């Protein structure tokens, strides 16, 4: 059995990271796994078990045909084709495959733009019905997808496998790093409406006397809007938008607190990575993200889209003493260890076995 993951490109957000980590773990455990990327716009170096079709955009109408030709020409054993995100979902679903091929899709978010178009709903029911199994990365993703599909799919095909995350080393210092100038706060994610950084900027402005530096790690189409927001709020001397960074563990080590102000979220991989370093979090209590963080003492879950509420959470955190911070750090690490990459890979391997 060979597992073929199909995703648009190797770089991006949590879904792309999950695919690369899952592929690596499966191969390490003796499962033959490969990844096929439709595009590789940043020319990211690929591993020996990763391939690209060489297209300039996943919207290229040749993508489906080239994908099918490449897979069937390159791999001659029983196959499980595993799609991720929108374009691979559609290409894999509509293409004709031999009977020996099994199809799996992972749903990575609680919301997408397709669900804003009511006319797509009956089409999507047929698309998802093509798959032998659909993996949801959280209970929130499971519930929202089941609601979108309605009665058009056997619900037993929907399974929940929580993401695994990279666990970084705990920070060396145990006390709050803030000095008399204030806290260093960090957010990580794509610069998009989903991630809600316009909300966190407004919150930082309201709690400005407590904040020395607010670092936003990420890139995206909303950069110019957020830069304008920084200027309008008078935060140019506080906010650093540093773009995409590879050494996420190091950036997490610079901070006292993380903000995750997402409007919606399928899982929140960066939250688990942050907790693994002992970093406390203020996060939106939205489906998916709230599912994995609820019950962790190091996380302050707040109502989404309300800068005032986030600002008050920053104030609460700033009032904690060193002993309380040490306690939060310990609880953060313990919670992160629930979501290991090994457990995730084992769950996927077991799923693949049931399909063959």
Automatic annotation (TrEMBL):
Domain Glycosyltransferase subfamily 4-like N-terminal positions: 13-164
Superkingdom: Bacteria
Membrane spanning residue stretches: none
Protein name according to UniProt: Glycosyl transferase
GO molecular function, one term: glycosyltransferase activity
Biological processes per GO annotation: carbohydrate derivative metabolic process
Residue span, Glycosyl transferase family domain: 182-333
């Amino acid at each position: 059995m060979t597992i073929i993951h199909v995703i648009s490109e190797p770089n991006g957000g949590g879904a792309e990271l999950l695919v690369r980590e899952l592929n690596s773990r499966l191969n390490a455990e003796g499962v033959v796994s490969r990844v096929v990327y439709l595009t590789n716009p940043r020319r990211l170096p690929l591993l020996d078990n990763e391939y690209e079709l060489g297209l300039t955009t996943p919207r290229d109408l040749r993508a489906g045909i080239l994908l099918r030709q490449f897979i069937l020409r390159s791999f001659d054993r029983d196959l499980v084709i595993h799609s991720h995100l929108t374009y691979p979902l559609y290409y894999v679903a509509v293409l004709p495959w031999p009977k020996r091929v099994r199809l799996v899709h992972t749903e990575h978010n609680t919301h997408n733009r397709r669900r804003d178009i009511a006319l797509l709903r009956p089409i999507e029911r047929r698309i998802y019905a093509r798959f032998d199994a659909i993996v949801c990365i959280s209970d929130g993703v499971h519930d929202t997808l089941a609601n979108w599909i309605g009665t058009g799919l056997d619900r037993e095909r929907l399974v929940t496998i929580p993401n695994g995350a990279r666990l970084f080393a705990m920070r060396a210092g145990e006390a709050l790093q803030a000095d008399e100038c204030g806290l260093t706060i960090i957010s990580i994610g794509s610069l998009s409406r989903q991630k809600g950084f316009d909300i966190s900027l407004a919150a930082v402005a309201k709690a400005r006397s407590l904040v020395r530096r607010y670092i936003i790690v990420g890139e995206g189409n909303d950069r110019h809007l957020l830069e304008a927001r920084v200027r309008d709020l008078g935060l140019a001397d506080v906010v650093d938008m540093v773009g995409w960074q590879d050494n996420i563990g190091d950036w997490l080590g610079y901070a006292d607190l993380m903000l995750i102000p997402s409007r919606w979220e399928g899982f929140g991989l960066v939250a688990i990575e942050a907790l693994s370093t002992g970093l406390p979090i203020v996060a939106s209590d939205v489906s998916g993200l709230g599912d994995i963080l609820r019950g962790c003492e190091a996380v302050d879950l707040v109502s989404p889209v309300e800068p005032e509420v986030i600002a008050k959470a920053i104030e609460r955190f700033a009032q904690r003493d060193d002993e309380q911070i040490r306690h939060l750090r310990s609880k953060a690490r313990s919670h992160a260890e629930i979501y290991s990459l090994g457990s995730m890979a084992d769950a996927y391997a077991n799923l693949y076995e049931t399909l063959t």
